[in-house]
Hints:
Chain A is an all-alpha fold. Chain A is built from 13 helices and no strands. By secondary structure, chain B is mainly alpha-helical.
Amino acid sequence: MSTITLLFSIFLLTLLMITTMAIVRTRNLFVAVMLMGIASLLIAASFFLLDAADVALTEAAVGAGISTVLFLGALALTSERERSPSSLPLLSLGIVAIVALIVIYATFDQPPLGSPSAPVQAHLTPWYIESTRELIDIPNVVTAVLASFRGYDTLGEVIVVFTAGVGVLFLLGTGASASAAGAPLSEDNAGLRHYLIPRILGRLLIPFILLLGFYVQFHGEYSPGGGFQAGAIVAASIILYSLLEGEQRALLVIPQGVLLAMMVGGVLLYGAVGVAGLVLGGNFLDYSVLDSDPVKGQQWGILLIEIGIGITVAGVLISIFHAFASRGAA
Amino acid sequence: MLAPHLPMLQVVVPLLMAPFVVLLRPRGLAWAAATMASLMAFAIAIVLALSVVGDATLTYRVGGWMAPYGIELRVDAFGALLLLVITGASSMALLGGQRSLERALPPTREPYYFSAWLLALTGFVGIAVSADAFNIFVFMEVSSLASYVLIAGGPDRRALSAVFKYLIMGTVGATFYLVGIGLVYMMTGTLNLADMAGRIEAVADTRPMIVAAGFITVGLALKAAIFPLHIWLPNAYAYAPHVTTAFLAACATKVALYVLLRFDFLILQQHLSGHAFQFAGYLMPLAVLGILVGSGVAMFERDLKRLLAFSSVAQIGYMLLGASLVSVSGLHAAILHMFNHALAKGGLFLAVAAFAAVTSGWRLEQIGGIARTMPWTFAAFVVCGLSLIGVPGTAGFLSKWYLVTAALEHGALGIALVCVILLSSLMAVAYVWRMVESACFAPDFDAETDADSTPNRDFAAFSHLLPTILWIVALANLYFGLANALPLELAKSAARTLLGGLP
């Protein structure tokens, strides 16, 4: 790590600390939500400095983008100011301080950052780099690890996203009754259609965001990216559309039923690839047997499961947004 | 041909059925699909349990990649016993709970509920078969998120605040575990548990390892509701739909305890100097306090479900007490008690679901006279209650007997521990008696005071399956008290494995 990067990291982390302090201290929830978006961007930048571009992309899209919108949706259902606590949370403060001190204590013996002799670098990584070239033949080793070597974890992560979607739809309902198809578009749910400048500028952005989403989806084997990031970016463009044009119009573009089918379909596609490996004589999630050439099979498998991830992530995020937004309108 | 894939299919069957269930709109279909998947998982668990008897271990390479590069599944006796508990509890609760859930859930939400049920099942079995520290975390997330949904599912709005508390504490617990394995990964460069155990020796006394041991133990203790980290449990169990409670009370905390024991014994214990002593010295007082406080609160609790939930806190204390003895006999008792307590507590909560069908509530005075209205269901309730106390002839007696035997190996300390066990068993007699007393001798609460609000007096029309299932569970409590062959064998083998083949 060069001196410039180091200084910049320290600068970012200092800003992050100030931001988090401000989040804890503020009683205005709107301010807190905005600050949380900033904190996510700072974290994403730090990830990027640590050469974790894939994670940085996800953090920026989900942390700064979509969760901010969801928090704002939740904020519309409640008041903007937090009730002041009856007493100083001294106990919590003490516990947080102790845990922080313990973590700092733990860092004293850690191997130097980026050292090639660190166990993380020396133990498994050489094998991953070697085998990616030999057995999968794609440039992005991170994608190879996530989608194939540890593809079962990634299936689990998709299931986590799917579970979140099921949970929100269960608790908040689908909102389908509030905006039944064919109902006239009501005025109070018209988004920003009466504000010309944001509407025109926003609509200009949407195709580019969508394009970026598809690029990230299909370029994941070569550069940072993949289904999770792409799904979040595509969801962001649809959410932007519904902010501009009103939620009901967005539901006309992608109806509730399609969203549900996306949630379910992506997971089932991932699972089907896994079962196909099983049926064709390999183990579950073994992509090598999908094609007569094992390397080709791996590439097919990775392509298919990444599409599955993208579909489920986009479906879940848009559904969650609609669930919150339709409650706000009701 | 399928046999070598069984550890994987154990997870895949509920996992792929869960998204499918969301689409099943007609009433009852989602339940039927979920029950079918759960029964299939149960059948797989039985086959797995039979094939690991005699210290065998089944492994599976997911994606065909060898460990430690890929993710490995590993089913040994401990895992197989836990799989039996998880899938058995899920199947019995689903089979018996159909009508009860039909009343608790609006029809449009049913598919989501049963999908979440299968996801929780997926998470639990995924943890039980996994041999990879990060993979365990992923499935812990799946099971936790799905459990929150299951708890918040009922008509009782108080469940929402209870589940929010559970969500916050559960997230803190999972994050602690993640920080812990992050530190271990930093020092060993591996996530595979067996590989980790081999590589930890070289870095055993570094600061990150010591801190990691603490983070992992505390995080999992929170998930396992070990006293004093149990405060999320009583309300979450009390306000959830009855059938959810029967499922989660039988297995949720035990899965976290399973991970805790595997991590502490297989990885930390054998390699960190003095860890065994710290483990015992830290957890034994907590176990004793948990037993006494849990039983004590249960004695004075008037809400039937909260009473049983506090009793669970005490029972987790028993399991922990056995483990904190750090001996084969202690672990044997602890692991056997996981199985036996699931039988007893699952049955009791299912009986509560049956009572709640005909009463207006489940406070002790509200179940007054229930023994006269539904004598057979009540009899099954009493059998499970006796097993909870540990009366000879029931499953609960066996594990307590082994626990007392194990404690007596420890001299004066052991005698003190036996006194604690005896005292808390007497307390259990007291709180079980309070339930029996209200049910048998209290005035018929509903008939006299609010007969109009009684939802349904006709139990036969309510469900024919629930009493049958209840009696199956009750008879299992008796059967495993008299002929405890399979669980006994599995628990013994599990205890030997955990202590690394020591005598």
